[in-house]
């Protein structure tokens, strides 16, 4: 339970499955983790709950993730509203962003009796769960069911609605009793080498395959730049399109930010890896179309200031990988003053104290990837942020 960021009562929900009370099991999960269905599919359980299972010392751990998925799917298929809205308080809260952090906050606030409105800039709500998690892990129906669950609590979800400027934040902060920003981060940063404008955004590629697959021209050979979980997801999506997929990374396997289980999954799925190769140019054919990528061979040369292995050009001939699509998955852009809504920043993330945003606003809070200065940016951490931030908002609204 301690290894789970949302601290689900794992023995309790398993016991309820064992006694045939699957609905009660799902309720136990959702009370701690409103996105329990998503997390059952995408959580790195090997690193969290299953990694901490006492049976690891003697045999295989209990399949906690699969049991959680069983219980939440059972509840979803019965379409039961297991959680209820609280007694109305007369307070209004705006949640900006309908990803894991936003939905978790909205659900918790609604259960406290507050009226909650969620703004989502895209056509469908659900954020990363809807657009950024590959279909192999989470079908879009699962994400949209979680949106429906929050609506069943009386939450108003407004899509195609965004918060863009500091002036808009000033307005909504005066119209609502509190505002919660679960906006995540921005697009993939730009690449700085010849032909970089031909690279495809990894998250947008996944989103297009998941929400509008018929509009995607299937690539034949794909190279993905990066070595995090999004890079592996983008390469996996390319494989689902029927393409060959190679991940190119300037460092060694030991510096990959992807989880070990993700790396194993990728290799088993036929994804190739080219380590110690720094992307230097996207090659174009005579028609200006992508024909390959050139990478500078690297070698390890001590460690850098962060304690990672330092890599430098080896002097060996460049590596050339033929392809017809290059996907960039090198992380996401952080906030800068011009897009921070006038809020305080901490190393490119929204600065908070107990989830309250620093700066000119008294009633603005934030959580999720937007504040993740340290630690892993993951769905389950965003869910916990939303839950804890909602409690902080509730205390604020009660004058505590």
Q: What is the share of helical residues?
A: 25-40%
Total strands: 18
- What is the mean pLDDT? 94
The number of helical runs is 12
Give the N-to-C terminal Cα separation.
Answer: 29 Å
Unreliable spans: none
Question: Beta-sheet strand percentage?
Answer: 15-25%
Largest sheet: 5 strands, parallel
- Shape assignment: globular
Structural class: alpha/beta
Spatial strand order of the main sheet? 3-2-1-4-18
Give, in order, the helices and strands: HHHHEHEHHEHEEHEHEHEEEEEEEEEEEH
What is the CA-based Rg, rounded?
22 Å
Quick take:
The chain has 12 helices and 18 strands.
Annotation keywords:
400 residues; alpha/beta; five-stranded parallel β-sheet; 12 helices; 18 strands; globular
Characterise the protein shown here:
This protein has 400 residues and is α/β, with parallel strands linked by helices. Helices cover 33% and strands 20% of the residues. It has helices spanning 10-18, 22-32, 36-42, 64-78, 100-111, 128-131, 140-152, 166-175, 202-211, 229-240, 260-268, 379-397, and strands spanning 92-96, 115-119, 156-158, 178-181, 200-201, 221-225, 244-248, 272-274, 277-284, 290-303, 309-313, 319-322, 325-328, 345-346, 349-350, 352-353, 356-357, 364-366. A five-stranded parallel β-sheet has the order 3-2-1-4-18, with helices on both faces. Strands 5-13-6-7-8 form a five-stranded parallel β-sheet. Strands 9, 10, 11 and 12 form a four-stranded antiparallel β-sheet that branches. The longest helix has 19 residues, at 379-397. The two termini are 29 Å apart. The model has no long low-confidence stretch (mean pLDDT 94).
């Amino acid at each position: 339970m301690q290894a789970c960021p949302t601290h689900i009562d794992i023995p309790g929900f398993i016991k309820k499955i064992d006694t045939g009370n699957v609905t009660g099991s799902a309720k136990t999960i959702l009370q701690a983790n409103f996105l329990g269905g998503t997390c059952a599919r995408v959580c790195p359980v090997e690193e969290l709950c299953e990694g901490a299972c006492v049976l690891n010392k003697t045999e295989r751990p209990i399949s906690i993730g699969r049991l959680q998925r069983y219980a939440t799917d059972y509840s979803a298929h019965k379409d039961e509203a297991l959680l209820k809205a609280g007694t109305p308080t007369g307070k209004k809260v705006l949640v900006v962003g309908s990803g894991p952090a936003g939905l978790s906050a909205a659900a918790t606030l609604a259960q406290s009796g507050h009226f909650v409105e969620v703004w989502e800039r895209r056509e469908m709500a659900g954020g990363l769960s809807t657009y950024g998690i590959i279909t192999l892990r989470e079908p879009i129906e699962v994400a949209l069911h979680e949106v429906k669950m929050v609506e069943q609590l009386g939450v108003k979800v407004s899509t195609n609605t965004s918060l863009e400027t500091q002036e808009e934040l000033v307005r909504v902060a005066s119209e609502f009793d509190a505002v919660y920003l679960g906006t995540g981060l921005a697009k993939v940063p730009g690449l700085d080498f010849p032909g970089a404008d031909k690279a495809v955004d990894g998250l947008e590629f996944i989103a297009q395959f998941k929400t509008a697959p018929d509009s995607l021209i299937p690539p034949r050979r794909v190279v993905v730049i990066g070595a995090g979980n999004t890079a592996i997801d983008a390469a996996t999506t390319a494989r689902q399109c029927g393409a060959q997929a190679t991940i190119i990374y300037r460092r060694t396997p030991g510096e990959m930010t992807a989880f070990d289980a993700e790396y194993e999954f990728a290799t088993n799925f036929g994804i190739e890896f080219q380590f110690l190769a720094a992307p230097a140019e996207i090659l174009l054919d005579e028609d200006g179309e992508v024909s390959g990528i050139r990478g500078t061979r690297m070698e390890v040369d001590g460690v850098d200031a962060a304690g990672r292995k330092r890599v430098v050009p080896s002097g060996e001939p460049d590596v050339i990988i033929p392809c017809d699509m290059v996907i960039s998955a090198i992380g996401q852009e952080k906030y800068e003053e011009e897009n921070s809504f006038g809020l305080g920043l901490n190393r490119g993330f929204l600065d908070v104290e107990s989830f309250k945003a620093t700066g000119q606003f008294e009633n603005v809070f934030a959580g999720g990837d937007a504040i993740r200065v340290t630690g892993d940016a993951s769905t389950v951490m965003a869910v916990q942020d939303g839950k804890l931030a909602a409690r902080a908002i509730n205390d604020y609204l009660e004058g505590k």
